[in-house]
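Sequence in, structure out.
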Amino acid sequence: MSDGLWAQIKEDWIANGCDWTKPGFRAVAVYRFGVWRMGIKYKLIRAPFSMLYRMMFRRIRNGYSIELPYSARVGKRLVIEHQGAIVVHGNAQLGDDCIIRQGVTIGNRYMDRPNEAPTLGDRVNVGAGAKLLGKITVGDDAAIGANAVVLHNVEANTAVVGIPAKPIGNSKPQPQVVYT
């Protein structure tokens, strides 16, 4: 992450409607803090920040039911629309400008392969209750329908729905927002 902590949090804040009270924004801010503190070279100096991160992470996880560990790789301007039952695997990768809604799981599929996790491209829109499982790739500008169970790769600009998820056509790219 080349940008500084505050610059990233400001972008996330703008993407989340400039509302610091939104649980989704708070979860992303705690995630950014967790990633930032790992950049502190000396463990002794990092220790108090790690204790603070763990405290905030647990509050977000237990209070809002949003689990977004610092070990996940999250792009800029992540939006978590609604709180509740959101789990992101520690090895998951999310691109820039992704949207996640309540009840979403982005995690592993097989117990014997616990480190496999999905990779989402830029501007992926994940509907409420969707499950993205295993070592899959979701292309840029894809749309995942509500309650879809995605077990295979999704091409860019594709909308998928159902259990298991199947393509239903092209998704319309979201308009680009320029942040100044």
